[in-house]
Design a protein that fits this description.
Order of helices and strands of chain A: EHEEHE
Strand order of the largest sheet of chain B: 3-2-4-5-7-6-9-8
CATH architecture of chain B: 3-Layer(aba) Sandwich
Number of strands of chain A: 4
Chains: A alpha+beta, B alpha/beta, C alpha/beta
Radius of gyration of chain A: 15 Å
Shape of chain A: elongated
Distance between the termini of chain A: 22 Å
Number of domains of chain A: 1
Order of helices and strands of chain B: EHEHEHEHHEHEHEHHEE
CATH class of chain B: Alpha Beta
Oligomer: heterotrimer
Largest sheet of chain B: 8 strands, mixed
Chain lengths: ~90, ~280, ~400
Amino acid sequence: MRVYARQPVNLTQVRIPRGQVFLIPDRCKGCQMCVEFCPQQVLRMSTAMNARGYHYPEIAPGKENACVHCEFCMMVCPEFAIFTLEVDSA
Amino acid sequence: MAHALVAEKHPLDDLIRRDRMPHIWCPGCGIGIVMRCYAQAILESGIPVERHVVVSGIGCTARVPGYMNLDSYHATHGRPIPFAIGLKLAKPELMVTVFSGDGDLAAIGGNHLIHAARRNVDIKVICINNFNYGMTGGQVGPTTPLGAKTTTTPYGNPEHPFNLPYLLAAAGAVFVSRWTTLHVRQIKRDILYSFRKPGFTFIEVLSPCPVGFGRPNDIEDGVEEMRIYRRRSQLVYRVPDEVPWEALEVDLREERPIYVGRFVDREREVFQPVRR
Amino acid sequence: MKGRGVLTGVHFMHGDHACAEGAIAAGCRFFAGYPITPSTEIAERLAQRLPEVGGVFIQMEDEIASIVAVIGASAAGARAMTATSGPGFSLMMESVGLAAMMEIPCVIVDVQRGSPSTGLPTLPGQADVMQARWGSHGDYEIAAYAPWSPQEMFDLTVLAFNVADRFRIPVMVMADEVVGHMVERVVIPPEDQIPRWERKRPRYPAGDGFKPFLVEDEDLVPPMVHAGEGYRVHFTGLTHDERGYPDMSAETHHRLVTRLVEKVRRNASQMIRYDTYALDDAKIVVISYGCTARSARRAVADARRMGIPAGLLRLISLWPFPADVVRELARQADAFIVAEMNLGQMICEVERYVSQPVKGVFHAGGAMIPPDPILQAIREVAFHGPRAGGGKASAG
């Protein structure tokens, strides 16, 4: 993420959400849109395969806590195969 | 979170015919994206699911009703709009959405499209434009851009495509917008808006069709076409103040802008059958 | 008159208008149509009357939109009808198949005119009768009725709605320009005397596992669910299973299409209508329908006065064809004569079921076949034997 010179005034008060990624691997068709468009680059394609022979995404190393529950992966997935739920931040 | 967790059920599964998933669309096809936006909009619409009805014709996009857990009607090629008109006029409390493709709505169904817009019947049309006839293997359609390769235009399309927003605006639709499958928030927001706006509404969504259109036109896959959308789509607030209507024609040659946005949002008397 | 649904009483009424009144009396509250001579008066009358009774009239952009809107309205629960003539009937054929496949009831009135193509817009014909049965692609069955008077325009339209709703099929009213445009006495009964057969309704509530196309009755008719009732069913023109889901297998296809056809064949006796005149001891059986039957009746009456044992079987239901009646007549008759205003269509059905010679009295359309050619055919058969003249004759 780019860091801009100005920061929001309420940066310390605003709580950035944290998300848990959920997959339904058997629905995935390996189109990689979630990987491409996640703003935090949380996902990468795994080497695992589902029953139809498609690779499906996994959390990229080092990105375990990077999901901010923006839900873009859910919105851009054509297969109803991925979504996030908000987790209480520590 | 350390890993992605495996889930049994997607939050929108109640609106999907789970026993038919996964759907038939190709990897990288954008139809599923718009279907998800539609399902989300139905959930947020405040209208009971029982009153929502979805109607389609023939084509890949027209398979959407088969996967939605609603009263759904998969009619003949080009005819979802008159079917929807019959449903709506016989039972006005229904919220009738036509979900079909560019060929189905603008070629064989073209006459019904313009007349329904002219009448301003209260039906919601979602037109997924993937620039070809995908189901039958990628033939040229009424929205195939100039010069594009398809199985029936192997030397490049010699015809101009329909400029659908311009066409619908002229025909009398009260709400016309165009987005791409990248603009997921706007699609859902506009579907919700169209539920609340009486009259004939038309939302065009440009979508990748990696097998039918992408491959013959050197677009590697669905993600690549989405990158093209990201690069070239340009939001327009006011037509023709910012750009002329003619500029809304989609042209995929060179790096020309693809204009998206809400193009028409106006008030017009909604069609009401005569009562005495 | 304003606001009255059923115009009970004795009227001197135009055939097309009687058809429109029959629709309203049957509870039709949706009409989508397109003007075409000689059916336009049906649309015009309904444009006037439907708003009075709380129904919907809409003139669509073409005949295809008309029939599809009718099917959509019926899917939402309304009794819905359209009216047209030959050229529009041809345009509607794909949708006849759709209605048959989705099992959505609808009524299509074809006021036949001179054909083929643009033909004779203002003059009669009866050449669409085979098309009514076979017009759409694929295997399916429908019912079709041929009125011979404005009274029957009323009565058979009521019957058409009942048959359509009860068996979930498209039903045609095959009128002709003579019957559609003539003005004659029409008696409209009180509302409570107008028969009404309702659609079969589901016996299970909505819920997971509800199968809209599961047939549990002998009559092979599945219960009808309408849009907005909470059943969330899928209707498709694709081959489908009991859940309504597309199923691209030969086995499902054979099972479904066979049921759609058997559904009509098994219930044919409830749909078949015919009329007889002087048939008890007839040796020469004349078969006719629609306006031509009026001339045939006169010809048979004249033949009887000459001592010829002729009789008339008037087809009221063209489809399902009253095969059993014809087979039964073949036990007593020496010869059959089919009089129709086309170059030989229903004669094919008669020939299928009898071994006697069948003589045709035909005209391609444009004017009623007068009684005389039919009487001449009867006389020729009577005096020169059934095989005289060899085969079919044209009324010229």
